[in-house]
Specification:
- The structure is a single chain.
- A hairpin with a 2-residue loop joins strand 4 (113-127) and strand 5 (130-138).
- This protein has a six-stranded mixed β-sheet with strand order 3-4-5-1-2-6. Strands 12-19-23-21-20-24 form a six-stranded antiparallel beta barrel. It has a five-stranded antiparallel β-sheet with strand order 8-7-11-10-9.
- The model is unreliable at 1-9 and 173-250 (pLDDT under 50).
- It is α+β, with helices and mostly antiparallel strands and 745 residues long.
- It is built from 21 helices and 24 strands.
């Protein structure tokens, strides 16, 4: 075949694609089986286009697109993504209608983020005057957009040779008159455009008819895109486009109705209603949504195994259906929007722009039994009106192709809505049952009592009696709960000896200290000033007494005895004053020494962030500065027990004759293990706790084994064993005490 026959005059093809097209042209004239032709043609077409994958779809007798042949299409994930297949339904239809080449791209949505971009070239196939299918080409990611026209021309030539082969095949009857050699059916020039907006239905697809044949425009046959496993045999029943279409289903088959009612899970019932409803209603897609609270949740879409709630189409459809269900009326959109409520215009426009649907019908799902009661009450005009039932969900019908909605859709929809609403109501009520597996187990045994009234009464009385006897006679450990802390027994609380300012902190949190180590140094300026004043005064007095002694030892001439006696008594007075001042200086010196605070025991500094808490801070006398604890000298639990439990502990000590009641405790720092101990002593007076109210302080000694590396002040929850009491009192002791206190007293 020459180059002029293979390509248009305005497009020049490289040598390699031209050679492959020549091989396809030669193969189209060979009498080979359908499978062999596509098995040889598809790899050459993918290679000529340097594409990633390709597929051949043919129309069967039920007007479905059947995947006849594929190359690497499964590996791309296109067939496993229902949303991608739905996105390309309209471009598939457009390519078949125009009998030309259509380009379309869509991005795949995934949970991990934006998925890959699928860029497809689709060429429609016709056999004579009937649509036969299409060739799908998945372009590679690095395909040059500037050469897309050239690739579309190659695909056009491949489709032309394929239609030549299909016109000569018995499974696809040709329009060539008898006695004439078969002629290739020439499609129009390739239409390389995006299908963002559907083609106008007023423009029929053009056809180039060979000379001598009447120019009859082909009928618009829009197939439903449905993925059928590759390799399905078309034969005379599947591949004949001229075969009569199956009659419309007027009644829902019994097996389909039972399939909805046999599922007691809402998702399963919705999935059956969506997939079977598509067949019953004769539309392209059916979705089922459930009313959860005040919102609608899309549960099932026909042809999809699951629903991605993050997809834009799903979110827009849920928002639209939610507004329709709130109104309680059906929404029917078949292309005319002048009679739509203003509240639905924008949500409907957003969804149609995203889904490319041509017709949408949304019907609220009601419980038919409740709806019947509501309508009958309205007819009878009862005094107490029956409230209008709330919708259980919605049934969404969509027509994506150009086929009109069935004429009897309203009758079919009424029947499907009634059955779907009842099945959904039954599934919802079944899922609301609390502890359903337990009730099923008990129901298996209780079924024996059905119809045996005496056995039922005897069984009930026996059960109540057994429970009452067990509550009275079965002994059980009665334990009193207390909460507190785990603390070392030996500890020192360091207080400020005098008012002053903290000059230096010598320790930090967690430091090991010994008795006599300096902890904190304070400064009191007033005390220091008094000490200096008294010291100076004592020096002055001592100077005066030395002067008197000198005068007495070397008396001046003319000194009388009276003068000597006066000096002697003055010296005695100064000596007494010096003794008093000396005692004051000694006391002040002790006070100044006390400002250097030292540890009195060996241990660990337990106060948190000591340096930040005390440094350069004024303190008052008696104020707590820090704590030093010795974890090596033993531990004890300091618990707070509610005051009303004290009587049980005293009674247990009296009965057992031992004050050391057993205790089991758990640490908040390690709740996976429990430890044993024993009660040490009870407090002699009650205290008021902010959390527990009136409590009794209790001390308990941990036993062995002891937790490793316990934290000082770790929270402890302990239970003190107060002996055996009846099971009923252990379980309902608080109720019994409340009755005694409030009713009997």
């Amino acid at each position: 075949m020459s180059d002029e026959q293979n390509e248009p005059a305005d497009v020049e093809l490289p040598p390699e694609p031209r050679r492959l097209l020549d091989e396809i042209a030669a193969l189209s004239l060979q009498p080979v089986p359908l499978e062999t032709f596509f098995g040889e043609t598809l790899p050459r077409a993918v290679a000529a286009l340097q594409a990633e994958a390709g597929a051949v779809w043919l129309i069967d007798a039920q007007r479905r697109l059947v995947l006849e042949r594929e190359q690497n299409l499964i590996a791309t994930g296109f067939l496993n993504d229902p949303m991608m297949k739905a996105a390309f339904e309209q471009p598939f239809t457009t390519a078949i209608e125009r009998c030309g080449v259509v380009a379309h791209a869509a991005r795949q949505e995934t949970l991990d983020g934006p998925g890959r971009m699928f860029s497809l070239l689709m060429g429609g196939l016709w056999a004579g005057r009937q649509p036969a299918g299409l060739i799908q080409i998945v372009e590679s990611a690095d395909a040059d957009p500037a050469t897309q026209r050239q690739r579309a021309t190659i695909l056009e030539i491949v489709c032309r040779h394929t239609m030549t082969f299909l016109s000569r095949t018995a499974a696809f009857p040709s329009a060539t008159p008898a006695g004439q050699p078969p002629r290739p059916v020439a499609p129009p020039s390739p239409d390389v455009s995006s299908t963002a907006s559907p083609p106008t239905p007023q423009t029929p697809p053009g056809r180039v008819v060979p000379a001598g044949q009447p120019a009859v425009p082909p009928p618009k046959v829009v197939p439903n895109v449905e993925v059928i496993p590759a390799g399905a045999k078309l034969g005379a029943t599947q591949g004949s486009p001229g075969a009569p279409a199956a009659p419309a289903v007027e009644l829902i088959p019994l097996d389909g109705v039972l399939a909805m009612y046999e599922h007691l899970r809402v998702k399963d019932a919705a999935l059956v209603a969506a997939n079977e409803g598509r067949r019953w209603l004769g539309v392209d897609r059916v979705s089922v949504a459930e009313r959860v609270g005040n919102k609608l949740k899309l549960l099932a879409i026909s042809g999809a195994a699951s629903v991605n709630p993050r997809a834009n189409v799903v979110q827009l459809l849920s928002a639209l259906a939610d507004k329709v269900v709130q109104s309680g009326e059906r929404l029917v959109f078949d292309g005319e929007s002048h009679n739509l409520p203003p509240l639905l215009e924008q949500p409907l426009a957003d969804y149609l722009h995203e889904s490319r649907s041509r017709a949408v019908v949304i019907a609220p799902l009601f419980d038919p039994i409740a709806w019947k009661k509501f309508t009958e009450a309205g007819v009878r005009v009862e005094k107490d009106p029956v409230p209008r039932p709330k919708p259980l969900g919605a049934l969404v019908l969509e027509q994506i192709s150009e086929n009109p909605l069935p004429a009897d859709l309203e009758v079919r929809l009424d029947r499907v809505v009634a059955h779907a609403g009842l099945a959904l109501r039954n599934a919802q009520e079944h899922e609301r049952i609390f502890l359903l597996p337990v009730w099923r187990f008990l129901g298996g045994y209780s079924s024996w009592f059905r119809g045996r009234r005496l056995a039922q009464w005897l069984g009930g009385l026996a059960a109540v009696g057994a429970i009452a006897v067990a509550m009275v006679l079965v002994p059980w450990d009665y334990r009193v709960e207390g909460k507190g802390r785990l603390m070392p027994v030996v500890r020192q609380e360091v207080f400020a000896p005098w008012d002053g300012d903290v000059v230096k902190v010598h320790v930090a949190t967690g430091d090991q200290v010994k008795a006599g180590d300096v902890l904190v140094v304070l400064k009191n300026d007033e005390l220091h000033a008094r000490y200096l004043a008294q010291s100076n005064l004592m020096v002055e007095k001592e100077t005066q007494i030395e002067s008197i002694r000198a005068q007495l030892s070397e008396p001046a001439p003319g000194m009388t005895a009276a003068s000597k006696e006066e000096l002697h008594f003055k010296g005695l007075q100064l000596k007494a004053e010096i003794d008093g001042i000396e005692r004051q200086v000694k006391s002040l010196k002790q006070q100044l020494d006390a400002l250097t605070v030292k540890a009195s025991i060996d241990g660990v500094v337990a106060t948190f962030r000591v340096d930040e808490l005390l440094r350069l801070r004024p303190v008052r006398r008696g104020e707590l500065l820090l704590q030093v604890m010795d974890p090596k000298q033993g531990w004890r639990m300091e618990l707070d027990v509610p005051e009303n439990r004290l009587g049980h502990m005293l009674e247990a000590q009296r009965v057992s004759g031992n004050e050391k009641l057993p205790v089991r405790y758990v640490l908040a720092t390690g709740t996976e293990e429990t430890w044993d101990g024993e009660l040490d002593s009870l407090g002699s007076r009650s205290m008021v706790s902010e959390k527990e109210g009136a409590v009794i302080p209790v001390f308990a000694t941990p036993g062995t084994p002891f937790p490793e590396n316990p934290q000082i002040g770790a929270e402890v929850t302990a239970k003190i064993n107060c002996g055996k009491k009846p099971l009923g009192y252990v379980l309902f002791g608080d109720v019994i005490e409340f009755v005694r206190k409030r009713l009997w007293f």
